Amino acid sequence: MEALTGLSGRALLVGSSGGHLAQLLAMAPLWPRERRHWVTFDTADAVSQLVAEDVTWAYHPTTRNLPNLARNTALARRVIAEQSPDIVVSTGAAVAYPFFLIARAKGIPTVYVEVYDRIDSRTVTGRLCRPVSTLFCVQWEEQQKLYKDSVLVGPLL
User: Fold this and answer.
1) Per residue in 132-150, pLDDT tens?
2) What is the dihedral angle through the alpha carbons of 20, 23, 24, 25, rounded to the nearest 10 degrees?
3) Which pLDDT band, with edges at 50, 70 and 90, does 117 fall under?
4) Looking at the predicted structure, is the pLDDT value of residue 16 above 70?
5) CATH number for the domain that contains residue 18
6) What are phi and psi of 19, to 5 degrees?
7) Within a 10 A sphere around the Cβ of 23, how many other Cβ atoms?
8) Which one of 32, 103, 106, 122 has the lowest number of neighbouring Cβ atoms within 10 Å?
9) In-domain check, residue 119
10) Strand intervals (E) in the chain
11) Is 33 a domain residue?
């Protein structure tokens, strides 16, 4: 995770609940609580883990759900305008994409960390976010073969 230690400013941490959120939580200490804002799903695990955090709940499900993609795109515009992040960070999944598009359009750096459990194939979100990522990170050396010019950060969990 050493490659991520130079990231500073106000962070917008965007990800699905469950394992994606667990990986984002591992990165949270890089930013003080008052310099981070979360976007995730209103699920039992996320609510319990982010009880003391500043959170915006995103729309789900996101898989093959165009209405929620539209809602999350509008949400991304609103949250990015309100929070004025210096960086947007995500481990996926689909909720990341509209936030990366809006951040990129506004010139805000984006950092995507590919999930640790996909070693031999690329994720859909990884493929979508790669072209709009300022920094694209992987957790396993094997993943670097799938994503050229990615940065190896090692396992987050």
Assistant:
1) 999 999 999 999 999 999 9
2) 120
3) confident
4) yes
5) 3.40.50.2000
6) -65, -35
7) 22
8) 32
9) yes
10) 11-15, 36-41, 55-58, 87-92, 110-113, 135-138, 151-152
11) yes
Share of the chain above pLDDT 90, in %: 86
pLDDT digit string, tens, across residues 31-83: 999 999 999 999 999 999 999 999 999 999 887 889 999 999 999 999 999 99
Four-residue CA torsion sign, 68, 74, 78, 79: positive
Counting the structural domains of the chain, the total is: 1
Task: Tell me if 56 sits within 8 A of 41, measured CB to CB.
Answer: no
Residues 6+ apart with CB under 8 A from 155: 116, 139, 140
Q: Say how far residue 103 (Cα) sits from the centre of its chain.
A: 12
The residue type found at 62 is: T
Q: What is the DSSP letter of 96?
A: H
**Across-strand partners of 49?**
none
**Domain ranges, residue 90:** 2-152
On average, the pLDDT of the chain sits at 93
Query: How high is the pLDDT of residue 2?
Result: 60
The DSSP secondary structure of 20-49, one letter per residue, reads HHHHHHHHGGGS-GGGEEEEEE--HHHHHH
